[in-house]
Amino acid sequence: MSDANLTATTRSADLDGKTRDRRAFDRSFGQQWLRKLALPIALVALLAGFALADDRILTSYNLLNIAQQTSYLALFAMAQMVVILTRGFDLSLGPTVSMVSVGAALAMAGMGGGEAGGLVVVTAALAAGLALAVACGLFNGVVVALLGVSPLVATLGSMNIAIGVATTISDGRPVQGVPSAFSQVFYTGSLLGLPIAIVIALVVGVALAFVLSRTVFGRSLYIIGTNPQAAAVAGIPVKRLLVYAYLLCSALAALGALMMTARTGSGEPNLGGTLSLQSIAAAVVGGTSLAGGRGGVATAVLGALFITILSNGMNLTRIDGYVQMIVLGAIVILGVVLDRLRLSAR
């Protein structure tokens, strides 16, 4: 073969290789954008579908209601997302909410309720709620990280403990006596025209996004979730950070519990309800991977918005509550299946 032919053949091979690389890049780029836009498109489609069934869903009152409801679930989804990043999850989140609600209400009642100063009441509620949440988060973190128990078993056990504590200290009844000062701080107040619940969720979301993306602690959680063995070899204190992750999860759950207590006006031993499942569903549907190492604040918030719109739409169209539970469970399974498909396609 002459030098000219050899050069032409080489150039042709280089062009073919570059074309294949370009096509592979285009496919990968397109798939990335498709994954990013899938949930926003689904949100619009869901909203439009329910609007066709009942136009009340698009009223300004209902949209504001959706935004407020999303702010609560977003806090719990962000809490769940933190531990899911590390290949765990927290089944005790819902009962922790109930326990914090009852404990904070009892603390405020013990301080004299409305007779005590507003700052004193709020401080008592915060102290009692955070103390209970820290105890639960520390228990989960120690059992998972130091004793090596799976998150499923550990948080299943603490879930039952929290249910027992909430029911015992409240005698199974709502705890009355939540003063107006507490409700003003966590529910009825507003800032710049926005309901305080939305403001709190925004502030927490921005702060958590900064922690996860700009701090050693946050970046380490992603590394632990991606490969815990490699993280340990790299010198990352895996066990200690796992404990911190469960503490942060419980602290965020406590904040959401205080907000919901202010909304209901009493400490409710059943306030957590299905929040454990809803928070996991919101995180997973939003794109947080149960395999660990992938997710963020945006995924948790979008997932919470999806679950809230779905619940709101089903309520307006009068779909039975038990059917709603079936739908929610199916969404969790679907989210896990899609996550597995994404991982296998990588």
Automatic annotation (TrEMBL):
A Pfam family: BPD_transp_2
Record's GO cellular component terms: plasma membrane
UniProt keyword Cell inner membrane present: yes
Record keywords, A-Z: Cell inner membrane, Cell membrane, Membrane, Transmembrane, Transmembrane helix, Transport
Localization (cell): Cell membrane
Domain of life: Bacteria
Any GO molecular function: transmembrane transporter activity
Signal peptide: none
Topology class, membrane: Multi-pass membrane protein
Segments traversing the membrane: 33-52, 72-89, 96-113, 119-139, 146-166, 186-212, 241-260, 280-307, 319-338
PANTHER family (alphabetical): ABC TRANSPORTER PERMEASE PROTEIN YPHD-RELATED, ABC TRANSPORTER PERMEASE PROTEIN YPHD-RELATED-RELATED
The name this protein goes by in its record: ABC transporter permease
Lineage: Bacteria, Pseudomonadati, Pseudomonadota, Alphaproteobacteria, Hyphomicrobiales
